[in-house]
Amino acid sequence: MESDIIVEGFQRSVEMHGVEYRIFIGDGDLSVLHQILTKVEYGRFVKKKECANHVVKCYTTRLYGIAKETKGSSAFLSGPRIKRLKNGARKAIKHYANILRDVQGTAQKQRAQKADLTRQLAGDLINGPKHVFGCHDRCKDYFCDGTKGDNIYDGMPKVLQMKIVTAANIIAEKADRLVTDDTSNLAEAVMALVAKLSGGKQINRCQKGSYE
Fold this sequence. Notes:
Structural class: mainly alpha
Radius of gyration: 21 Å
Shape: globular
Strand order of the largest sheet: 1-2
Number of strands: 2
Protein backbone atom coordinates (compact mmCIF):
# COMPACT_ATOMS: atom_id res chain seq x y z
CA MET A 1 0.00 0.00 0.00
CA GLU A 2 2.83 2.39 0.83
CA SER A 3 4.36 1.86 -2.60
CA ASP A 4 0.99 2.56 -4.25
CA ILE A 5 0.77 5.89 -2.43
CA ILE A 6 4.28 6.88 -3.53
CA VAL A 7 3.66 5.91 -7.15
CA GLU A 8 0.36 7.81 -7.22
CA GLY A 9 2.15 10.85 -5.83
CA PHE A 10 4.59 10.73 -8.74
CA GLN A 11 1.81 10.13 -11.25
CA ARG A 12 -0.16 13.18 -10.09
CA SER A 13 2.76 15.52 -9.36
CA VAL A 14 2.32 17.57 -12.54
CA GLU A 15 -1.46 17.72 -12.19
CA MET A 16 -1.39 18.77 -8.54
CA HIS A 17 1.82 20.79 -8.23
CA GLY A 18 3.08 21.45 -11.75
CA VAL A 19 6.40 19.69 -11.15
CA GLU A 20 8.12 16.41 -11.97
CA TYR A 21 9.82 14.64 -9.09
CA ARG A 22 13.31 13.63 -10.18
CA ILE A 23 14.68 12.17 -6.92
CA PHE A 24 13.26 9.37 -4.80
CA ILE A 25 14.72 8.71 -1.33
CA GLY A 26 14.10 5.21 -0.04
CA ASP A 27 15.59 2.14 1.59
CA GLY A 28 17.35 -0.75 -0.12
CA ASP A 29 14.12 -2.08 -1.65
CA LEU A 30 14.09 -1.52 -5.42
CA SER A 31 10.46 -2.53 -5.98
CA VAL A 32 9.11 1.01 -5.51
CA LEU A 33 11.65 2.44 -7.94
CA HIS A 34 10.70 -0.25 -10.46
CA GLN A 35 7.04 0.77 -10.23
CA ILE A 36 7.96 4.42 -10.69
CA LEU A 37 10.03 3.58 -13.76
CA THR A 38 7.22 1.55 -15.32
CA LYS A 39 4.08 3.38 -14.20
CA VAL A 40 5.08 7.05 -14.17
CA GLU A 41 5.22 8.87 -17.51
CA TYR A 42 8.52 10.59 -16.69
CA GLY A 43 9.76 7.67 -14.58
CA ARG A 44 12.88 7.10 -16.67
CA PHE A 45 14.26 10.41 -15.40
CA VAL A 46 13.79 9.55 -11.72
CA LYS A 47 16.91 8.69 -9.73
CA LYS A 48 16.93 6.92 -6.40
CA LYS A 49 18.96 7.97 -3.38
CA GLU A 50 19.17 5.79 -0.30
CA CYS A 51 18.18 7.04 3.11
CA ALA A 52 21.45 7.41 5.02
CA ASN A 53 19.78 6.53 8.30
CA HIS A 54 18.45 3.28 6.86
CA VAL A 55 21.84 2.31 5.42
CA VAL A 56 23.58 2.91 8.75
CA LYS A 57 20.83 0.98 10.54
CA CYS A 58 21.40 -1.99 8.21
CA TYR A 59 25.14 -1.73 8.91
CA THR A 60 24.46 -1.84 12.65
CA THR A 61 22.09 -4.79 12.30
CA ARG A 62 24.70 -6.64 10.26
CA LEU A 63 27.31 -6.04 12.98
CA TYR A 64 24.99 -7.34 15.72
CA GLY A 65 24.39 -10.40 13.55
CA ILE A 66 28.13 -10.97 13.24
CA ALA A 67 28.57 -10.64 17.00
CA LYS A 68 25.81 -13.17 17.62
CA GLU A 69 26.89 -15.82 15.12
CA THR A 70 30.69 -15.64 15.43
CA LYS A 71 32.37 -17.66 18.15
CA GLY A 72 34.72 -15.68 20.39
CA SER A 73 33.42 -12.30 19.22
CA SER A 74 32.07 -11.08 22.57
CA ALA A 75 35.47 -9.85 23.75
CA PHE A 76 35.87 -7.72 20.63
CA LEU A 77 32.56 -6.83 18.99
CA SER A 78 30.67 -5.64 22.07
CA GLY A 79 27.54 -3.51 22.14
CA PRO A 80 29.44 -0.27 22.94
CA ARG A 81 31.88 -0.89 20.08
CA ILE A 82 29.05 -1.53 17.63
CA LYS A 83 27.51 1.77 18.74
CA ARG A 84 30.84 3.52 18.09
CA LEU A 85 31.00 1.95 14.62
CA LYS A 86 27.49 3.20 13.91
CA ASN A 87 28.20 6.70 15.21
CA GLY A 88 31.47 6.82 13.27
CA ALA A 89 29.73 5.97 10.01
CA ARG A 90 27.07 8.62 10.63
CA LYS A 91 29.72 11.19 11.52
CA ALA A 92 31.67 10.51 8.32
CA ILE A 93 28.55 10.84 6.15
CA LYS A 94 27.56 14.14 7.76
CA HIS A 95 31.11 15.50 7.48
CA TYR A 96 31.40 15.03 3.74
CA ALA A 97 27.80 16.09 3.09
CA ASN A 98 28.49 19.41 4.83
CA ILE A 99 31.58 19.96 2.67
CA LEU A 100 29.66 19.07 -0.49
CA ARG A 101 26.91 21.60 0.30
CA ASP A 102 29.50 24.40 0.29
CA VAL A 103 31.07 23.44 -3.04
CA GLN A 104 30.75 26.17 -5.64
CA GLY A 105 31.90 26.66 -9.22
CA THR A 106 31.01 25.14 -12.54
CA ALA A 107 28.96 21.97 -12.86
CA GLN A 108 32.10 20.13 -13.95
CA LYS A 109 33.99 21.30 -10.86
CA GLN A 110 31.11 20.29 -8.61
CA ARG A 111 30.98 16.82 -10.15
CA ALA A 112 34.73 16.40 -9.71
CA GLN A 113 34.55 17.55 -6.10
CA LYS A 114 31.65 15.21 -5.39
CA ALA A 115 33.59 12.28 -6.86
CA ASP A 116 36.59 13.12 -4.66
CA LEU A 117 34.45 13.46 -1.52
CA THR A 118 32.74 10.17 -2.34
CA ARG A 119 36.11 8.46 -2.58
CA GLN A 120 37.21 9.93 0.75
CA LEU A 121 33.95 8.93 2.43
CA ALA A 122 34.32 5.36 1.22
CA GLY A 123 37.85 5.25 2.61
CA ASP A 124 36.76 6.56 6.00
CA LEU A 125 33.87 4.09 6.21
CA ILE A 126 36.29 1.25 5.51
CA ASN A 127 38.69 2.65 8.11
CA GLY A 128 35.96 2.86 10.77
CA PRO A 129 36.55 -0.61 12.27
CA LYS A 130 40.31 -0.03 12.51
CA HIS A 131 39.70 3.21 14.40
CA VAL A 132 37.26 1.61 16.85
CA PHE A 133 39.61 -1.30 17.52
CA GLY A 134 42.61 0.94 18.20
CA CYS A 135 44.46 1.26 14.89
CA HIS A 136 44.64 4.97 14.00
CA ASP A 137 47.19 4.97 11.16
CA ARG A 138 44.66 6.28 8.62
CA CYS A 139 42.38 8.33 10.86
CA LYS A 140 41.66 11.93 9.87
CA ASP A 141 41.48 14.84 12.29
CA TYR A 142 37.70 15.28 12.06
CA PHE A 143 37.20 11.59 12.82
CA CYS A 144 39.79 10.96 15.55
CA ASP A 145 41.22 13.08 18.37
CA GLY A 146 44.46 11.11 18.38
CA THR A 147 43.76 9.28 21.63
CA LYS A 148 45.79 6.11 21.58
CA GLY A 149 44.38 3.02 23.22
CA ASP A 150 45.27 -0.63 22.93
CA ASN A 151 45.37 -1.81 19.33
CA ILE A 152 43.29 -4.98 19.35
CA TYR A 153 42.50 -4.91 15.64
CA ASP A 154 45.41 -7.09 14.59
CA GLY A 155 44.85 -9.43 17.52
CA MET A 156 41.23 -10.31 16.88
CA PRO A 157 40.32 -13.64 15.23
CA LYS A 158 40.82 -13.39 11.47
CA VAL A 159 37.36 -14.77 10.73
CA LEU A 160 35.77 -12.04 12.86
CA GLN A 161 38.01 -9.38 11.36
CA MET A 162 37.09 -10.43 7.83
CA LYS A 163 33.35 -10.32 8.60
CA ILE A 164 33.62 -6.83 10.08
CA VAL A 165 35.67 -5.61 7.12
CA THR A 166 33.08 -7.07 4.75
CA ALA A 167 30.29 -5.21 6.57
CA ALA A 168 32.29 -1.97 6.30
CA ASN A 169 32.91 -2.57 2.60
CA ILE A 170 29.19 -3.04 1.97
CA ILE A 171 28.35 0.40 3.37
CA ALA A 172 31.41 1.95 1.69
CA GLU A 173 30.20 0.72 -1.70
CA LYS A 174 27.17 2.99 -1.24
CA ALA A 175 29.28 6.09 -0.61
CA ASP A 176 28.09 7.74 -3.84
CA ARG A 177 24.51 7.52 -2.53
CA LEU A 178 25.43 8.57 1.01
CA VAL A 179 27.68 11.57 0.38
CA THR A 180 24.66 13.90 0.15
CA ASP A 181 23.28 12.58 3.49
CA ASP A 182 19.71 12.33 2.23
CA THR A 183 17.14 10.90 4.64
CA SER A 184 13.44 10.16 4.68
CA ASN A 185 13.05 11.78 8.11
CA LEU A 186 10.51 14.39 6.98
CA ALA A 187 8.27 11.84 5.26
CA GLU A 188 8.45 9.50 8.25
CA ALA A 189 7.59 12.37 10.61
CA VAL A 190 4.48 13.17 8.56
CA MET A 191 3.43 9.50 8.47
CA ALA A 192 3.98 9.23 12.23
CA LEU A 193 1.67 12.21 12.76
CA VAL A 194 -0.97 10.69 10.47
CA ALA A 195 -0.73 7.38 12.34
CA LYS A 196 -1.09 9.17 15.67
CA LEU A 197 -4.25 10.94 14.57
CA SER A 198 -5.78 7.98 12.73
CA GLY A 199 -4.91 5.25 15.22
CA GLY A 200 -2.31 3.66 12.97
CA LYS A 201 -2.54 -0.10 12.66
CA GLN A 202 -4.61 -0.41 15.83
CA ILE A 203 -7.79 0.27 13.86
CA ASN A 204 -8.87 -1.59 10.74
CA ARG A 205 -9.89 1.26 8.43
CA CYS A 206 -11.39 -1.20 5.94
CA GLN A 207 -14.29 -1.90 8.27
CA LYS A 208 -17.54 0.03 8.14
CA GLY A 209 -17.69 2.89 10.60
CA SER A 210 -13.96 2.84 11.37
CA TYR A 211 -13.69 6.61 10.83
CA GLU A 212 -16.62 7.45 13.07
